[in-house]
Automatic annotation (TrEMBL):
Family named by the database record: Belongs to the multicopper oxidase family.
Pfam families: Cu-oxidase, Cu-oxidase_2, Cu-oxidase_3
Residue ranges constituting the Plastocyanin-like domain according to the UniProt record: 75-188, 202-344, 437-580
Keywords per UniProt: Copper, Membrane, Metal-binding, Oxidoreductase, Transmembrane, Transmembrane helix
Coiled coil: none
An annotated Gene Ontology molecular function: copper ion binding
Protein name per the record: Multicopper oxidase
Transmembrane annotation, as ranges: 12-31
Lineage start: Eukaryota, Fungi, Dikarya, Ascomycota, Pezizomycotina
Record keyword Transcription present: no
InterPro entries for this protein: Cu-oxidase-like_N, Cu-oxidase_2nd, Cu-oxidase_C, Cu-oxidase_fam, Cu_oxidase_CS, Cu_oxidase_Cu_BS, Cupredoxin
Amino acid sequence: MPKLRKKNWFTILVISVPVVWLLGFVLHILWVSRKIDDNLGTSPQLRAEEDYILDSTWNFDTGPNTREYHWIIAEHELNPDGVYRPMTLINATFPGPLIECSEGDEIVVHVQNKATNATSIHWHGLFQNGSNYMDGTIGITQCPIAPGQSFTYRFNVSGQTGTYWYHSHMAMQASDGLVGPIVIHPRRSEEIALQEVRYMEDRVVLVSDHYYDLSSSLLIQYLQPGNENDEPVPPAAVINGRGLRDCSDLPNRNCSTTDRSNALFDLSSEHNTRLRFINVGAFAEFQIQIDEHEFQLTEVDGVDVHPQAIHRLNINPAQRYSIIVTPPTPNKGLYWMRARMVTHCFAYEEPELSEEVRGIIRYAPTSEPPIPQSKDWPEVIEVECKDLNTSALAPVKELAPPEKADDLIYLRSSFQIGDWRLSRGFLNDSSYRASISHPTLSTFTTGIQEKSDKHLYSLSMPYGFNTYLFDPSTTLVYQTTGVRTIDILLQNFDDGNHPFHLHGHTFWILAAGHGYPPENVRKGEGLDLRNPLRRDTASLESYGWVLIRFVADNPGVWAFHCHNGWHNEAGLSMQFLERADVLAKRKVPEEVDALCAVEGIEKGAGPDDSIWVGKWD
Ligand SMILES: *[C@@H]1O[C@H](CO)[C@@H](O)[C@H](O)[C@H]1NC(C)=O
Ligand SMILES: *[C@@H]1O[C@H](CO)[C@@H](O)[C@H](O)[C@H]1NC(C)=O
Ligand SMILES: *[C@@H]1O[C@H](CO)[C@@H](O)[C@H](O)[C@H]1NC(C)=O
Ligand SMILES: *[C@@H]1O[C@H](CO)[C@@H](O)[C@H](O)[C@H]1NC(C)=O
Ligand SMILES: *[C@@H]1O[C@H](CO)[C@@H](O)[C@H](O)[C@H]1NC(C)=O
Ligand SMILES: *[C@@H]1O[C@H](CO)[C@@H](O)[C@H](O)[C@H]1NC(C)=O
Ligand SMILES: *[C@@H]1O[C@H](CO)[C@@H](O)[C@H](O)[C@H]1NC(C)=O
Ligand SMILES: [Cu+2]
C-alpha cells in the first residue's frame, strides 16, 4: 500500500468537511420534513369550507365509476368551538370527508382502525340492495372492526339519489366525531326534472349537537340505575364542525378560540344556492333560520319534493332537507344563519348550555371580520317537541304505495323502569341489546346453512316474529318470505320526540297524530294514498303516533330504531329480516364473518346491564 503523503491528507480534509456538512444538512432537512409530514397526518384540524362545496364541474352523465377512499380512524384532542375534547376522527379532520358520487357508482372505503375502541361505518339511507352485509350495523349485519384492524366497505349505489350521510354504528361513537356527508347525483336530465328551482351552487351543511365529554362516559351515566331517561343535555352545537364559545363562560374547560370562527358560507350574490342540511347530531332537534331570508324546501331524505316556501326548518337527528337560497335584494352582504336546539325536549338545566350556534352567510368578500347586522325572524321559539309539518310536502316523482298492507305491526314505544331501577326503551316488551359477536345476519344464514333443522326457521311461514332463533325480549326480529307490504303503527307513550329510521328503505308516511290512533288508521282504511311523503327517518312525536308503510323487498336484516343515540342505546330498536327465502341461499362474505373472530371487538360497546345487577346464570 502506498503511503499517503501529507498533501493528500490535507486535500481529503478540505474536501470532506463540506461533504460531511452537506450530508448532515440534507439529513437534517429530511428529518425535519418527515416530522412535518407526521404532524400533518396526526395533528387534528377542522374541515375547510371548500371541502363541503359540491364539484361545479361534476360530470353527471358518465359512469358508473368507482370512488375509492382510504380512511384512518384515530383519537385526537380538538377544540371545534374553542373547548378541547377527545374525539374520534377520520384522517384527523372534523367532520368527515364528503363522499360525492353518481347513481350507479361503486363505493369502496378502506377503513383502518387506529383507535383504542372498535368501530363500524353505517351508510345512512343507502339501500344496500344485495349487499346487506355492508350496512355497517353492529349486532345486526356485522361485528365491529376491532382496534388495529382494517376492513373494506364495498357496495354499489343504485335506485336512489340525493343527500345521505355516514356515521359510526358502534355504541355512541358517532357523537365523538365519526360522521360525514354523502351526496348521490342523478343524471343531468333527471336532476333538472326533480329539482324544480334552479341553482348554480350546491353545498352540504351539517348541524349537530356537541358534547364536551366522550360519549362512552356520558352513556354509562345515562344508563345507570335511578336515571329516569334523563338524556345528557348537549352543552353546545356546531355547524359544519364549527362554533365559537365564549371561553369565559366555561371556567372548568380547557378552552381557546384562537383560529376558531363561526362557519362561513361564501354564497353567490347572483345565483341561487342549494344547501343540503343534515342533522348529524345524537339528540337535539334543530330549528334553522337565515335572517331576512325565505327559502324553498326541495328535498326530504333523498326524495325531491315540489318547492315549499318557508323560513324556518325543523330538523331531527338523521333527517336531511335541501333548501334553495335566493340572494336577497337589496343585499346587505352579511347574514346570520341560526341553528337553535329545541331545548324544550331537554331533561334538565345544563349550566354550560349555549343553545344557538350561528353560521355566517357572506355575499361579498369583506376585509373586516364578518359580523352580520341582520335581524332574526320575529316569532317565538318552539315550545313543544314537534317536527316540521310535512303533510304539505309532495314528492316530484309520484309513487303511490300499494293499496293494502299484507301485515300491520302495532308497537308501543315507551321507557320503563324495571328491575334494579334501570330505565330502558321498549317497543312493546322488547328492549334491544346488541349481540356484539353474533350479528343477526350471520346467525340466520349460518344457522340455516349448517343445520337443516326445519324448526330453526320456517320458510313456509310467510311472516312473523322469529322467536325461535332470537330472544324477543332483547332481539325483536320480524321475518318475511317473498315480497310483502308492511304497515308499522308506532305509538309513543312518553314525552320525547323519536326520529325512527328504517335501514335499507324509504317508507311512506301515511298518517300521524296525537293520542290514540283513530279506528280507520288501526285498520289501515280511508287513508290518502295519492302521493304521500316518502323518507327514511320519521318523527314519532311526544304522545303521538305515526303510520308508515314499506315494501319488504330488500333481502337482508334491517334495523328499525330511534335515531336519538341515547334512546337507541337504551333499547329502542328492532329488526326486519326480509325475504328469508332469498337470504337463506346467500353467504356472508368471509372477510365480513372474519371480523367476529378478532380479539377486541367488544371494546367501546355500550355497558351491559350486568355491570349493575351482576350475572345470574
Ligand atoms: C386519508 O389518509 C390516507 C393515509 O394518509 C390517505 O391515503 C387518504 O387519501 C386520506 N383520505 C382523505 C379523504 O383525506
Ligand atoms: C356492483 O356492480 C357491478 C357492476 O354492475 C357488479 O359487478 C358488482 O358485483 C356489484 N357489487 C355489489 C357489491 O353488488
Ligand atoms: C388544552 O388542550 C391542549 C390540546 O390537548 C393541550 O395542548 C393544552 O396543554 C391544554 N391546556 C390545559 C391548560 O390543560
Ligand atoms: C299541516 O299542514 C296541513 C296542510 O298544509 C294542514 O292541513 C294541517 O292542519 C297542518 N297540521 C298541523 C298540525 O299544523
Ligand atoms: C304490542 O302491544 C299492543 C298492546 O298490548 C298489542 O295490541 C300489539 O298487538 C302488540 N304488538 C305486537 C307486534 O305484538
Ligand atoms: C332490491 O332489488 C330487488 C331485486 O332486484 C328489487 O325487486 C327490489 O325492489 C329492490 N329493493 C330496493 C329497496 O332497492
Ligand atoms: C373506549 O371504550 C371504553 C368502554 O366503553 C370507554 O371507557 C373509553 O372511554 C372509550 N374510549 C374512547 C376514546 O372513546
Ligand atoms: Cu327516541
